[in-house]
Amino acid sequence: MKHLSLALLAMALSMPLSAAEPTQPTEPAEIPVEGSVWDTLVPKDWDPRAEYETISKEIYGERSPEQLEDTDRRAVELFDAMQDAWSNAPLRQDLDDTALILPGFVVPLEGDDKHLREFLLVPYFGACIHFPPPPRNQVVLVKMQGEGMPVDMMWDAVVIEGTLKVDSHDTEYGTAGYVLEGDQVWTYTGESE
Predict the structure, then answer these.
(1) Would you call 139 exposed, middle or buried from its count of C-beta atoms within 10 A (0-12, 13-18, 19+)?
(2) Cα separation of 46 and 75, whole Å?
(3) What's residue 130's pLDDT?
């Protein structure tokens, strides 16, 4: 299990975050479904890789963390520091009360055998199930209106339409920085809806 925690952390850091510059709406407006819609949730001046490098240098100095065992106390210290940084990642306050259409993957939280009423929506498969979870600006707590999302949809990539709120929540799978009050849900097809 050598280097497993650090490998997972490195994998999380390799996920694309801000390829396109986010827009700065002056009033709530719909954000189009596109490859960079998740990037829109990240403040443009926040660089998770730079944060990782800063924390890593504080703990390891000039030595690379990949050269050490997971059992090394510094590996645990790095993991804990990154977990704390991800749980406190900055949010886009200007997106509060914004209409949003967001594709993603489901991590179920609350529901019954037919419908999910609350779940996390994340940008890539397996996020929040494997550690470390993504930064909180890449985790959205969805609260479906009405009876909820049919349970059989949780295995597919989905698209949720609703109203985004900037409101951080700790869950058993990680910290969500946003709440999406979901009005509609459909299976993601990769085509413009």
Answers:
(1) buried
(2) 24
(3) 64
Q: Using the 8-state DSSP alphabet, how is residue 3 labeled? A: T
Instruction: Indicate the pTM of the whole model.
Output: 0.76
DSSP track, 106-130: EEEEEE-SSEEEEEEEESSTTBTTB
Half-sphere exposure of 68 (CA within 13 A, CB side): 20
Residue matched to tokens 């886009």: 92
- The amino acid at residue 14 is S
Contact 90, 138 (CB under 8 A): no
Contacts (Cβ under 8 Å, ≥6 apart) of 38: 17, 102, 104, 123, 138
Taking the C-alpha atoms of 55, 57, 58 and 63 in order, what is their torsion angle to the nearest 10 degrees?
130
Q: Is 93-187 a domain of CATH 3.10.450.350?
A: no
End-to-end CA distance of the chain: 43
To which H or E segment does residue 164 belong? strand 158-171
Structure token pair of residue 76: 């645990």
CA–chain centroid gap for 20, Å, is: 17
> 144-191: per-residue pLDDT in tens?
999 999 999 999 999 999 999 999 999 999 999 999 999 999 999 876
Domain ranges in the chain are: 4-16+33-87, 93-187
CA 64 – CA 164 distance, rounded (Å): 39
Residue 22 confidence class, pLDDT cut points 50, 70, 90:
very low
